[in-house]
Specification:
The chain is elongated. Helices cover about 70% and strands about 10% of the residues. α2 runs antiparallel to α3, α6 packs antiparallel against α7 and α9 crosses α10. A hairpin with a 2-residue loop joins β1 and β2. It is mainly alpha-helical. It has 2 domains: about 230 residues, no CATH class; about 50 residues, no CATH class.
């Protein structure tokens, strides 16, 4: 049985395939939920430009980013993502009426369940308004987001060159450079992980071609890596964060040692907590431990 909701594209139609019995009503709910998630996968990439924009405002224009401005830009990103995936769902509901017809396009050997039945699926195609708007909206919104990010990178880089010639301390210059490298890296990762799956779908739909189902599954699973990659960028690009990470084991050891010092040495608990710290060696003569 197929595990969870997965994707495929055949005959210019983007499928969301669910591994449950297609006659089961819960499969409809599971697949539509998965379709909503997949259709809004570009949300992360749209959001990726916001830290770059806020960095541009504070670093280049030397303005304060108000709470209202932050809320306004985040709201714009959310509305754009909802707009995109709404058209995808619109097309998917239209294609439910063509379920049996579209089933013939799927790779039966790859997707069939053990009993020979095809799993439940929904699809988006360019043959209806929803599919056309989905491909068009994703292409426009992601192109604008990427172009904005590139523009902001160039402006910040120009500002960095200006700062490098100023009278700021070397420590301040180094910190500014590290912070900007971190944000640029996060923008790049957000673009790759967030936009690539949607561009892959829209491109295949437009050019009426398809990649192997296994490839679309792998690419579609890249987006959840974003929450892991961004904190890593914070840690490895900024010296202060990196030093704190590497100092963590020493801090833990220090707290452990202080806790041991407060335990009476005659108690059983002191023996437990210090047993693994002692280095027992074998005596040279009688084999006893010293």
């Amino acid at each position: 049985m197929i595990s969870g909701a997965q994707t495929d594209l055949q005959g210019g139609i983007f499928f969301m395939v669910d591994g449950y019995d297609r006659r089961d009503m819960s499969s409809y709910v599971n697949t539509m939920f998965g379709f909503f998630w997949t259709s809004s996968i570009g949300f992360a990439s749209l959001y990726g430009s916001l830290p770059m924009y806020f960095r541009y405002v504070t670093f280049c224009k030397e303005e304060t980013v108000s709470t209202f401005r932050i809320f306004s830009w985040i709201s714009l990103v959310v509305v754009t993502a909802v707009w995109n995936c709404t058209w995808a769902l619109h097309s998917a509901f239209d294609n439910l009426q063509r379920h049996d017809e579209l089933a013939e396009l799927l790779d039966h050997d790859f997707w069939s369940l053990p009993d020979g039945e095809l799993p439940f699926f929904s699809g988006v195609s360019l043959t209806n308004l929803g599919g056309l708007m989905f491909a068009l909206s994703c292409t426009i919104s992601f192109s604008v987001s990427t172009s904005l990010g590139i523009y902001l990178v160039m402006k910040i880089r120009a500002k960095l060159e200006e700062v490098s010639k100023s009278a700021l301390s070397d420590k301040t210059k180094r910190l500014q450079t590290q912070m900007n490298r971190m944000i640029i890296f996060q923008l790049f990762i957000a673009t790759v992980l967030g936009q690539l799956p949607v561009f892959l779908v829209a491109g295949q739909m437009i050019f009426q071609t398809h990649f192997p189902p296994s490839l679309t599954i792998v690419v579609g699973c890249m987006d959840p890596l974003l929450p892991v990659v961004n904190p890593l960028a914070d840690i490895f690009f900024v010296d202060a964060y990196r030093r704190q990470l590497f100092a963590l084991p020493r801090q833990i050891w220090s707290k452990h040692s202080k806790a041991i010092n407060h335990i009476p040495k005659s108690t059983f608990f002191f023996t437990i907590f210090t047993k693994w710290e002692r280095t027992d060696t074998v005596g040279p003569d009688n084999g006893t431990f010293s």
